[in-house]
Specification:
The complex is a heterodimer of chains A (about 400) and B (about 775). Chain A is an alpha+beta fold and about 400 residues long. Chain A is built from 13 helices and 16 strands. Chain A has a 7-stranded antiparallel sheet, with helices on one face. Chain A has a 5-stranded mixed sheet with strand order 10-9-8-11-12, sandwiched between helices. Chain A has a 4-stranded mixed sheet with strand order 13-16-14-15, sandwiched between helices. The longest helix of chain A has 21 residues. Chain A is globular. Chain B has about 775 residues and is α+β, with helices and mostly antiparallel strands. In chain B, the strands form 5 sheets. Chain B has a 6-stranded mixed sheet, sandwiched between helices. The chains are: A alpha+beta (about 400), B alpha+beta (about 775).
C-alpha cells in the first residue's frame, strides 16, 4: 500500500488517500474503514435514463463516488473488500442518499475520511505502507484424510484449500485400498499446492503432520516433480520444511509456527512474534496464573495498576462498530504505551494466534508482577463465588 | 394410434396415396404388382406425415416404413404376454406413450379405408383432412369406451374378463359381437382390422436373415369374395393383428390366429372393428380396466428411479383410469417433498431382542479388548504372539515375516507384522493405526484392537479404545523403559486415563519383556505397586485390575505357561486365561441404534458400499433403513456380517460390517454415527460438556475426539468448576481450569455439526496432549 495523501486536522478528523497494491492491502483497508466513515473510490454504476418519449436506456458509467459507510464486508479467500453505503456527495448521475456498494480494487486510489483518526488507525496506515520485505509462507497441515493448504502472509492466514478425504482403514489382509487412497490423498495435496501456493514467492513451505505423513508427502512431491520435471518445485526444494504437529486441523498452525525449525527461519516476522507472544501468555497462565489475565475488565484493572508488561489486543476489537467500545480499547493501548514499561501487540484476528486471542475475548495481558482478584467484581453478584480466591479456582 | 387396414386385390398403389398428406413415405415393393393381396397401414405419426405401409399377403414380401423404425414398439414387454408374440411386435413401440395421456405427436387419426370394391368410386385413401366432417376413429373409440364405462358403472356389463381369457371365450365374444351394428356416432363404419406389424421393425428395417416371418395367416386363408357385403361393418376384411392389437389383446389374439391357421374358425370370427359396437367396446373396455401395461411399467420405472414410493400398482378390476390418474397426481404432489428412497429390501421384522435372548446360550460372547501402552512396550508383538500361539496365524506366515523382517534388520518385529501390515508401519517398526483381529478360545471369542503407542497416533488409539470392553495395558519392564512410559508425558499414563474415561472398567496389566530381566520378581512387584497406585487414582477398582508377568517375544505366560522353574514366584493365570475371565459389559440392545462408523470401503463386487464398526447401543437387522448422521442420506441394510459371518441381525456389542444399498460411498464418513431413520441423532454445533481436565484449560482451540471422529472445536466458555465428590459447583466462570479438576465447559464446533448427543463420551486434545475427557451434557 502506498500513502498518496494525508490531510489531518487538529481535531483528529481528516482524510487519507491510499493506493492498494496487493491483496493484503485489502485487509488493512478492512481494518481502517469503519461504519460512519466516508470513502471515496472509483465506481461503475448503471445509470438508467429516460428519454422524452418515455423509453429508457441504461448505460454503465465510470465515476468517483463518495459514500458514507454502512457495512464493510471482507472476503479473505478472494482478498476482496465490499463496502456498502449511501452516497454522500451528489453528482450528475447519482443523488445523495442513494445506495451504492463500492468494491475496492487493487491499483486504484481510495480516500478514507474519518471524524477521528486515532492512534490505532494511524498505526494501521503506517504498518500498511511499511515497505519492508514481506515474508509469505505456505503451509500444509495434514493428518490422514484431512489436509489444509494455507497461505500465511504478514497479516493474514488464508486457508486456500481444505482437503477432506475418506481413507479406508487398514484391515486384516487388505491394505491395498488404504495405500491407494493415501496415494490419491497425496496427489490431491500436491495438485492443490501447485495451484494455490505461489511457490516462487514464498519464503518457506511448511509441511506439518503428526507421524510420518509430512515426510511421505515431501517425498511424494519431489518424486512427482521429478517425474513431471516441474522446475518451480525442484528449484524450491530447500524451501520445503517438514514440521511435526499433532493434528491436521488449521489451528495446528499455532503449533507449527512455534516449532524451533520454523522460528529459526522466521524469527523476525510479525506472525512468528505474535505466535510467540500468545505462547508466552498461555505458558504464564499455567505456571504463574496471577501474572496472566484476559478479558477487558481484568486487563483494564491491570493497566490501572500499571502492571502490564505485554498487552495483546486483537485488531477485531478496533473494528467494532460501537464508537465508545472502540475508544475504550484505544485508550487501553495508549495507556500501556504511555506507561513506558509495557509493550503492545496488536494481533491480526485472521492469524491463528489472533483467533486464539479472540477466544479469550480479544484482549490479554502478561503482567510484570502477580495481581490477584482482578475479576473479583464480576463475582460480586454471585454470592458463593466471591468468597473464594479466584486464583485457586484452577488448582483445586 | 389407429390403424387403417385394407386387404384388397390391387394392381398398383393408387397415386392419391402419395398425395394424401404431402410428405408421406411410400415404399413400394417391386413385388407388389404381382401380389394378389395387399394390406395398407396408415399411421398418422406426425400431423405432417402419413406413412403408408404396404404389406403383401405373400409371406415373403413385405414393406416396412422408415417411420416405423423411429417408433419402435416393445409393448409386449409390458403386457406379460407369452413369448410367442415377442418376436412379432417390435420393442419400444409404446415407450413414449403413457396410457393416460397420449402425446400429441403420437395421436393418429383413423381414416376409413378406401374400399376398392368393384363398382365403387375409387376415393382417396388417407387422413381425415379429406373428410373434414368426420371425427377420428380414435375419438370414436374413446367415445365408445366412455360409453361402455358408463354402462359398466350402471352394472350393465359384467366385470369378469381377465386378460388371460382363453381363445375360445374370446371367439365366443367376438362372434356375438359380430352381428352388432356400428354405433351411430361412429363416423365411419370402418371395416378396419389389424394386421401384424412386420416383425423386427424396431431393430432393423429388414428382418434379420433366418428369422421366420410370422405369417399373415388371415390374409391367406380368407378370400375377398367370401366377405358378405351386407353392411359396411361386416365387410371388415381380415388381416393379421397389428402390434397395437397385440398389445391390447395379447395372447388371445395369437391363439385366435392359431385357430385360424387350423381353419377351424370362420373367417369372420376374427373380424373386429376398431370402432366397435357399444357392447364390443364394453368388452374391449375390460381390457382397459386397471392400469394399462404402460402404467404398470411407468409406475415400476418411476419406482426404480426412486421417484415415487407412494404409488402402488392398482390391481383391482374395479379401478378405473381416473383412479390411476389420481395415483399419478398423488405421485406428482409427492415428488418434491419425498426424498429418494433406497431400494426396498425385505425386512423380516425380527424381534431382535428376543432372538438375542434365545441365542445367548448357544453363542460364545464376543469381547473387544484394546491393547494399550507406551510406544515400543511390545503391544503388537505380544498380540502377534497371542494370535500365533492360539493358531490364528499359521506357521508359514510367521516364517515369511521372520525372513522379511530379518532382511531389513528388524527380526524382532516379525510377530508384530501380523498386525502391522502397511509398508510404513513395517519399515518404521511402529504401529500407526488400529489393527483388528479376532481369535477364539474354548471359553470365548475375542476381538483384539491393537492400538498404536506413539503419541502422534493417539487419535487412532482413541478410536480403538472407544470400541473396547476391557483393556490390556502392556508395560515394558526393562530398566528405564517403564519409567519413560510412566512419566508425566508417557503414554502408559495417558492411555490408561483415556480408556478409563471412555468407560473401560477392567484392565489387565501385562508386564512385558520380563525375560530380559531374568524374570526378576522385584521388578514385577515394583511395577505392580506403582501401577496399582496410579490406576486407583485413575478410577479403576482394584478388583478390576490384574497383573501378569509375560514375554511377548518368547511367548512365556501368554498362551502357554512358562517353563517349569522359570518363574517360580508366579503361579497365577496366563494372559489368555486372564482374558477368559473378563466378561463383556452388558449393552443396551433394545435402545435406539447408534454405531460409529470406523471404516467405509468397498466390500466386494456385490457389496459396493460396506461400513464397519461396533454397535454401541441398539440393534439392527437386514432391511432396516439407516441414516449416517450428520449426513442425511438414507440407506438400506442389505446384509450384515457379525465377526465376518453373515447374519440376519446384530446387537450392541457386535463388531459388524453392514453392506448398504441405495447410498454412495461419498455420503458416508468415518466417524459418522449410524442411526435408524425413526430415531436419528441430532448433530450438535455447540454443546456443554462435563469434563475432567488433564491439563490446564482456558478458552482455546481443541480437537474433539469421539471414536473415529476427529473434529476441531473451540472452548467458548468455562461455565463452572465442580466438586469431584458431589458434583456441586465450586466456582462459576473460572478463569481457567487446572489439571485434575472437574468442570463444565461450552464447546463450539468449528466445522460442520458433530454427531454427538447427551451422554456421548468425548476426549479433548490440544497441541498433541489429551487435555480433558468428558461427557456431553
Amino acid at each position: 500500500m502506498r500513502l498518496i495523501k494525508q490531510q489531518l486536522e487538529r481535531d483528529g478528523s481528516g482524510t487519507v488517500t491510499l493506493y492498494p497494491e496487493e491483496p493484503e492491502d485489502m485487509w488493512h483497508a478492512f481494518n481502517l474503514i469503519r461504519v460512519g466513515d466516508t470513502l471515496r473510490a472509483s465506481a461503475v454504476r448503471r445509470i438508467v435514463s429516460e428519454s422524452s418519449t418515455g423509453s429508457t436506456s441504461s448505460s454503465r458509467v465510470h465515476m468517483s463516488l463518495t459514500i458514507t459507510v454502512d457495512k464493510v464486508d471482507f472476503d479473505s479467500q478472494a482478498g476482496q473488500l465490499h463496502i456498502n453505503g449511501r452516497i454522500a456527495e451528489e453528482n450528475k448521475y447519482v443523488k445523495i442518499g442513494a445506495h451504492h456498494t463500492l468494491d475496492l480494487e487493487l491499483n486504484r486510489n481510495f480516500t478514507i475520511g474519518k471524524a477521528e483518526w486515532d492512534s490505532i488507525s494511524l498505526g494501521v496506515v503506517k504498518e500498511a505502507c511499511d515497505p519492508a520485505e514481506k515474508a509469505e509462507i505456505g503451509a500444509v497441515v495434514l493428518h490422514e484424510g484431512l489436509a489444509n493448504v494455507c497461505l500465511i502472509t504478514e497479516h493474514m492466514t488464508v486457508l486456500r484449500q481444505r482437503i477432506d478425504m475418506s481413507i479406508p482403514r487398514k484391515r486384516t489382509g487388505s491394505i491395498s485400498a488404504f495405500e491407494k487412497a493415501m496415494d490419491k490423498f497425496y496427489e490431491t495435496i500436491y495438485q492443490s499446492i501447485l495451484r494455490h501456493l505461489p511457490i516462487a514467492n514464498l519464503k518457506v513451505i511448511l509441511l506439518a503432520s503428526p507421524g510420518f505423513l509430512a515426510e511421505s508427502l515431501q517425498k511424494y512431491i519431489f518424486a512427482e516433480a521429478v517425474k513431471a520435471d516441474n522446475k518451480t518445485i525442484l528449484s524450491a526444494k530447500p524451501k520445503f520444511v517438514t514440521v511435526h504437529c499433532s493434528t491436521g486441523h488449521v489451528h495446528a498452525l499455532n503449533e507449527v509456527l512455534k516449532s524451533p525449525a520454523v522460528i529459526a527461519r522466521l524469527a523476525d516476522t510479525k506472525y512468528a512474534k505474535e505466535t510467540r507472544a500468545m505462547e508466552a501468555f498461555f505458558k504464564m497462565m499455567q505456571t504463574d496464573e496471577d501474572r496472566a489475565w484476559y478479558g477487558p475488565k481484568e486487563v483494564e484493572r491491570a493497566i490501572e495498576k500499571g502492571a502490564v508488561a505485554t498487552l495483546l489486543v486483537s485488531n477485531s476489537l478496533f473494528r467494532s462498530n460501537n464508537m465508545s467500545e472502540r475508544r475504550r480499547y484505544v485508550q487501553m493501548v495508549e495507556d500501556v504505551k504511555a506507561s513506558g514499561a509495557g509493550e503492545v501487540m496488536i494481533l491480526s484476528s485472521i492469524h491463528e494466534s489472533g483467533i486464539r486471542l479472540d477466544g479469550l475475548g480479544g484482549v490479554a495481558a502478561i503482567l510484570m508482577f502477580p495481581l490477584q482478584d482482578l475479576d473479583e467484581s464480576d463475582e460480586e453478584s454471585e454470592a458463593e463465588g466471591s468468597a473464594d480466591n479466584p486464583g485457586d479456582g484452577g488448582l483445586q | 394410434m389407429v390403424l387403417l387396414l385394407r386387404r384388397r386385390k390391387v394392381h398398383h398403389i393408387p397415386s392419391e396415396l402419395s398425395r394424401c398428406d404431402g410428405e408421406e413415405k411410400t415404399e413400394e415393393n417391386s413385388g407388389c404388382r404381382s401380389t394378389k393381396r395387399l394390406v395398407y397401414f396408415i399411421f398418422r405419426v406426425r400431423s405432417s406425415s402419413i406413412i403408408t405401409m404396404v404389406g403383401f399377403s405373400s409371406s415373403s414380401a413385405r414393406t416396412t416404413s422408415r417411420e416405423m423404425h423411429r417408433y419402435p414398439c416393445h409393448s409386449e414387454s409390458r403386457l406379460d404376454r407369452p413369448e410367442n408374440v415377442n418376436d412379432r411386435v417390435p420393442s419400444g413401440f409404446w415407450s413414449d406413450v403413457p396410457w393416460g395421456g397420449v402425446p400429441v405427436f403420437r395421436l393418429a387419426e383413423l381414416v376409413p379405408p378406401r374400399i376398392l370394391v368393384e363398382g365403387r368410386t375409387t376415393g382417396l385413401l388417407g387422413g381425415s383432412s379429406l373428410q373434414p366432417g368426420k371425427t377420428s376413429k380414435l375419438a370414436a373409440l374413446a367415445k365408445a369406451r366412455s360409453k361402455a364405462k358408463a354402462e359398466k358403472a350402471a352394472g350393465l356389463t359384467s366385470s369378469d374378463a381377465p386378460q388371460s381369457t382363453t381363445a375360445v371365450s374370446l371367439l365366443d365374444k367376438l362372434s356375438k359381437k359380430k352381428p352388432s351394428t356400428t354405433p351411430a356416432e361412429t363416423p365411419a363404419p370402418t371395416p378396419a382390422t389389424v394386421t401384424p406389424i412386420p416383425p423386427a421393425a424396431g431393430t432393423s428395417p429388414e428382418p434379420p436373415p433366418g428369422e421366420i416371418m410370422p405369417e399373415p395367416i388371415v390374409v391367406q386363408t380368407i378370400d375377398i369374395p367370401q366377405i358378405p357385403a351386407a353392411t359396411e361393418s361386416d365387410i371388415t376384411p381380415k388381416a393379421s393383428p397389428s402390434g397395437f392389437a397385440k398389445s391390447m389383446f395379447g395372447r388371445r389374439l395369437d391363439e385366435m390366429l392359431l385357430d385360424l391357421d387350423d381353419k377351424i374358425a370362420d373367417a369372420q370370427l376374427i373380424y373386429f372393428s376398431v370402432a366397435p359396437s357399444q357392447k364390443a367396446a364394453a368388452k374391449a373396455k375390460q381390457g382397459f380396466e386397471g392400469p394399462s401395461p404402460d402404467d404398470v411399467v411407468i409406475a415400476a420405472q418411476s419406482q426404480s428411479k426412486g421417484l415415487n414410493k407412494t404409488q402402488k400398482t392398482e390391481k383391482s378390476t374395479a379401478a378405473t383410469t381416473t383412479s390411476i390418474q389420481k395415483g399419478i397426481d398423488g405421485l406428482k404432489i409427492g415428488e418434491p417433498s419425498e426424498k429418494p428412497t433406497p431400494p426396498k429390501i425385505a425386512r423380516k421384522k425380527i424381534d431382535v431382542v428376543a432372538e438375542y435372548e434365545k441365542s445367548k446360550s448357544k453363542r460364545k460372547e464376543n469381547a473387544n479388548l484394546v491393547v494399550i501402552g507406551h510406544v515400543d512396550a511390545g503391544k503388537s508383538t505380544l498380540m502377534g504372539r497371542l494370535l500365533y500361539d492360539s493358531g490364528v496365524v499359521d506357521e508359514r506366515t510367521i516364517q515369511k515375516y521372520k525372513q522379511e523382517a530379518e532382511k531389513i534388520g528388524k527380526s524382532s518385529f516379525a510377530l508384530a507384522w501380523v498386525l502391522d501390515q502397511t509398508g510404513e508401519e513395517r519399515t518404521r517398526g511402529v504401529t500407526i493405526d488400529i489393527a483388528v483381529n479376532a481369535f477364539e478360545t474354548e471359553k470365548g471369542r475375542f476381538t483384539i484392537l491393537d492400538a498404536p503407542g506413539h503419541r502422534d497416533f493417539i487419535p487412532n488409539m482413541i478410536a480403538g479404545a472407544a470400541q473396547a470392553d476391557f483393556a490390556v495395558l502392556v508395560i515394558d519392564s526393562s530398566p528405564g523403559e517403564f519409567e519413560a512410559g510412566f512419566n508425566i508425558r508417557g503414554q502408559t499414563k495417558e492411555h490408561a486415563l483415556l480408556v478409563r474415561s471412555m468407560g473401560v472398567q477392567r484392565i489387565i496389566v501385562a508386564v512385558n519383556k520380563l525375560d530380559l530381566l531374568h524374570w526378576d520378581q522385584d521388578r514385577f512387584d515394583e511395577i505392580r505397586q506403582q501401577m496399582t497406585q496410579f490406576l486407583t487414582t485413575a478410577g479403576f477398582q482394584s478388583k478390576n485390575m490384574s497383573f501378569i508377568p509375560c514375554s511377548g517375544l518368547t511367548g512365556d505366560n501368554i498362551v502357554r505357561k512358562p517353563k517349569e522353574g522359570l518363574v517360580p514366584w508366579y503361579s497365577g493365570p496366563t494372559l489368555i486365561e486372564e482374558l477368559e475371565t473378563a466378561k463383556p459389559v452388558a449393552k443396551a440392545i433394545e435402545k435406539a441404534l447408534r454405531m460409529t462408523i470406523t471404516d467405509v470401503y468397498r466390500g466386494g463386487v456385490t457389496n459396493p458400499v460396506t461400513i464397519s464398526g461396533r454397535i454401541e447401543v441398539g440393534n439392527v437387522q437386514v432391511g432396516d433403513t439407516i441414516i449416517a448422521v450428520p449426513g442425511d442420506e438414507r440407506a438400506t441394510v442389505k446384509g450384515i456380517e457379525v465377526d465376518n459371518e453373515a447374519a440376519e441381525w446384530a446387537v450392541a456389542g457386535n463388531n459388524v460390517q453392514l453392506h448398504l444399498a441405495g447410498i454412495e460411498m461419498d455420503h458416508l464418513k468415518i466417524g459418522d454415527v449410524v442411526c435408524h431413520t425413526d430415531s436419528p441423532l441430532v448433530p450438535l454445533r455447540e454443546f456443554e460438556a462435563k469434563i475432567l481436565a488433564f491439563e490446564s484449560l482456558t478458552p482455546m482451540m481443541i480437537d474433539i475426539h469421539r471414536g473415529r471422529l476427529n473434529a476441531s472445536g473451540r472452548i467458548t466458555k468455562l461455565v463452572a468448576t465442580l466438586d469431584k465428590g458431589n458434583g456441586t459447583i465450586t466456582k462459576k466462570k473460572p478463569r481457567h481450569i487446572g489439571p485434575g479438576s472437574l468442570a463444565m465447559i461450552n464447546i463450539l464446533v468449528t466445522g460442520a455439526p458433530l454427531p454427538l448427543e447427551k451422554g456421548s463420551k468425548i476426549v479433548l486434545r490440544a497441541d498433541g496432549l489429551t487435555v480433558a475427557a468428558g461427557v456431553v451434557e
